[in-house]
């Protein structure tokens, strides 16, 4: 049995997968607000699953942060109480087995690269376009982490080709840098740009719905988003030239993106043609927890 856990700011989910990759058990709890309670809760989820299923399993965990390769301590997590702790050691001691931990966007990319939308690709870049925009790079079915543990964090590069007249005012990012890609090509980025440009607060889902019914302001905001995504994807393609870019998160439900982004890519990549496949995630919201379960194998 393989257990995958997805740690979020509000919920922790555990899913058990049988040897064929079928989901056989799942449970969700609220994320505790302090570290000792968090470790106890994670161990409780694993032990509870094993009691129910009457078998032991491997444990992989996706976290909204990363592990410092020098110290083994969690860093950059948005549930901040796990930062600065050696989560891997603490869980291994309590669960009496190896525990595998990776960034949640890396888990998403791994899931889609192993047997999802990118399964036929050697190099797969996974991006989650949701509230924010995470990324992960998988080569030959293995997550590329890097010495800083930040491979795939392309969302915190500056938006390529930024012009105030087209992209609006410069944006401060929570990471401390300015004009990060994430501030633009995410659900929250789309909402911010719509508000700045048209003076009206609309939810991303409403902007997309308006685009689909032909409302001009929504169409303008959508095509500006497509242009920004194409510029940002072109930097990935020029750098690593992946076989596939798989998109997950809320924006991956917008089917027209998968026609509109490829049409724009050739304007920005260093090639007169662009064969990179841009595909929606095969496993949707379950990809992160699936990839976490696959970590012990990667
Ligand atoms: Zn940033």
Polypeptide structure, described:
The protein has 298 residues and is an alpha/beta fold. The chain folds into 2 domains: 2-106 and 286-297, Nucleotidyltransferase, domain 5; 119-281, Nucleotidyltransferase, domain 5, CATH 3.30.420. The chain is 36% helix and 20% strand. Strand 11 (244-248), helix 8 (257-265) and strand 12 (277-280) form a beta-alpha-beta unit. Helix 6 (204-212) packs across helix 7 (216-240) and helix 7 (216-240) packs across helix 8 (257-265). The structure holds zinc ion (ZN). Zinc ion (ZN) binds next to loops.
Topology:
Elements: E1 2-7, E2 11-17, E3 23-30, H1 35-53, E4 58-63, E5 66-67, E6 74-75, H2 87-95, E7 99-103, H3 104-115, E8 123-129, E9 133-139, E10 142-143, H4 164-167, H5 187-198, H6 204-212, H7 216-240, E11 244-248, H8 257-265, E12 277-280, H9 287-294
Parallel strand pairs: 1-4, 4-7, 8-11, 11-12
Antiparallel strand pairs: 1-2, 2-3, 5-6, 8-9, 9-10
Helix pairs in contact: 1-2, 3-9, 5-7, 6-7, 7-8
Low-confidence stretches: none
The CATH topology of the largest domain: Nucleotidyltransferase, domain 5
Bound molecules: zinc ion
The strand count comes to 12
